[in-house]
């Protein structure tokens, strides 16, 4: 793991989060965030971060993305008055996967506030990275709950970041496709969404490699569909080249990284075979670019594994080495019998052939090459009818002149005639 670094990391947590309960037998357990926090504290990681309890955002702030009707419904619905809202329950897809439970709206407010507050903190340059393990609920739509998610804090966090940054990158390493976030930004080139997920007879059923965005947003949605058994080596072989290319061509001002832990080996709903180190390698790689990062939670349904994963990723973000032996904590018995941080992976077969992964990777990298270069990056003048070289404009394609060479070497300085060895005419300003 990287050595200690000077990155300023802020951490958002509200102790109330563990009190909310989706209902008996439901796989989503907000209690896992409390368990994560307990491990973070007992490892002493909190000392290296600024820890905040998020200030609750208003319902109006949620309507930056969600419809008024939907937010008003979430505020009004309780287990006691459900029978008065039969039609709305169907309309907003609330009831089965997304049940009504006590304090539902407060729960939404709580996890959303950490993501919006975290984004605002990055905007104010008060932190280089912000962590909100309660967030990352990426399936919620504008007027519909989906996949255990009611309010899409990822989208709201990105909208907050867009107040300051021209371009924001969203990366999703949850085993499920980040459909809610992709859909929200499908037609814009200011947000690029990149999702690595299980595809084929699997929730939510979207995220084909051919789904690349629409209109202005064409090629700004990237999907890497995967099969069962994805292991560390395979994941690293696709994640690093794809994200490396994205950072090069898109050059985001900020990154939102959704770290769903259901892509770990042994997840109750997942079918990948990643170790903690394989999962956290994504965090390490994104961190290496030195761009402001909002780190969010997401899926993760094996209760003893999720806190391990997010605690380790907190340590990675801080550049701290942590012992494999777990410190004593309030939930020590959950982590038995070995009480270790790192987990063994299973011997399941990896159904992703290296040929398939290579082929898909090449397909995605080709799509990224066709993107408009961002201002400040090298402009490929040979493109046919690009926004930089529209049809009907006679642009000569030639070698870079002296001025361009100097500008490339010293991008922050104005190129003067003196620098180019030219004499300045006295009449020139």
The H/E string reads EHEHHHHEHEHEEHEHEHHH
Question: What is the β-strand count?
Answer: 8
Largest sheet: 8 strands, parallel
Strand order, main sheet: write it out.
2-1-3-8-7-4-5-6
Output mean pLDDT.
90
Rg over C-alpha atoms, rounded to the nearest angstrom: 23 Å
Shape: globular
Distance between the termini: 54 Å
Oligomer: single chain
**In DSSP terms, counting alpha (H) and pi (I) runs of 4 or more, how many helices?**
12
Structural class: alpha/beta
What fraction, in percent, of the residue positions are helical? 25-40%
> Which percent band covers the strand fraction?
5-15%
Which parts are unreliable, with pLDDT below 50 for 5 consecutive residues or more? 377-399, 422-429
What this model shows, in words?
- This protein has 429 residues and is an alpha/beta fold.
- 31% of the residues lie in helices and 9% in strands.
- The protein has helices at 31-42, 59-62, 68-76, 86-91, 104-123, 153-161, 179-184, 232-250, 276-287, 305-318, 354-369, 402-409; strands at residues 9-12, 50-52, 129-132, 168-172, 191-198, 221-226, 254-258, 293-296.
- It has an 8-stranded parallel β-sheet with strand order 2-1-3-8-7-4-5-6, with helices on both faces.
- Helix 9 (276-287) links the parallel strand 7 (254-258) and strand 8 (293-296).
- Helix 1 (31-42) packs across helix 10 (305-318).
- The N and C termini lie far apart (54 Å).
- Mean pLDDT is 90; it is low at 377-399 and 422-429.
């Amino acid at each position: 793991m990287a050595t200690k670094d000077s990155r300023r990391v802020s951490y958002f947590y509200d102790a109330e989060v563990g009190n909310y309960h989706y209902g008996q037998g439901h796989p989503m357990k907000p209690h896992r965030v409390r368990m994560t926090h307990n491990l973070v504290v007992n490892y002493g990681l909190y000392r290296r971060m600024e820890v905040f309890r998020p200030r609750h955002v208003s319902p109006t702030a949620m309507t930056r993305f969600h419809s008024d009707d939907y937010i008003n419904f979430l505020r009004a619905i309780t287990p006691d008055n459900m029978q008065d809202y039969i039609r709305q329950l169907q309309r907003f897809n609330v009831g089965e996967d997304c049940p009504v439970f006590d304090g539902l709206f407060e729960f939404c407010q709580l996890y959303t506030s950490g993501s919006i507050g975290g984004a605002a903190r990055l905007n104010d340059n008060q932190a280089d990275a912000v962590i909100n393990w309660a967030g990352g609920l990426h399936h919620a739509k504008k007027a519909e709950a989906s996949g255990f998610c009611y309010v899409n804090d990822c989208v709201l966090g990105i909208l907050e970041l867009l107040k300051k940054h021209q371009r924001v990158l969203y990366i999703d390493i949850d085993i499920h496709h980040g459909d809610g976030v992709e859909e929200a930004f499908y037609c814009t080139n200011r947000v690029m969404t990149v999702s690595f997920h299980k595809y084929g007879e699997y929730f939510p059923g979207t995220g084909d490699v051919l789904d690349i965005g629409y209109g202005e947003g064409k090629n700004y949605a990237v999907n890497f569909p995967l099969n069962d058994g994805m292991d560390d080596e395979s994941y690293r072989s696709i994640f690093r080249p794809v994200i490396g290319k994205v950072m090069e061509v898109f050059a985001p001002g900020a990154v939102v990284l959704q770290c769903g832990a259901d892509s770990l080996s042994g997840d109750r709903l997942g079918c990948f075979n990643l170790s903690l180190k394989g999962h956290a390698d994504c965090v390490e790689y994104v961190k290496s670019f030195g761009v402001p990062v909002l780190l969010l939670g997401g899926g993760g349904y094996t209760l003893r594994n999720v806190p391990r994963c997010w605690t380790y990723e907190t340590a990675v973000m801080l550049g701290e080495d942590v012992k494999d032996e777990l410190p004593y904590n309030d939930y020590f018995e959950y982590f038995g019998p070995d009480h270790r941080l790192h987990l063994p992976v299973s011997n399941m077969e990896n159904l992703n052939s290296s040929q398939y992964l290579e082929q898909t990777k090449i397909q995605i990298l080709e799509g990224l090459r066709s993107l408009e270069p961002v201002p400040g990056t090298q402009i490929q003048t040979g493109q046919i009818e690009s926004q930089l070289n529209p049809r009907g404009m006679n642009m000569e394609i030639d070698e870079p002149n002296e001025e361009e060479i100097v500008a490339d070497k010293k991008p922050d300085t104005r190129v003067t005639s003196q620098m180019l060895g030219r004499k300045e005419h006295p009449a020139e300003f």
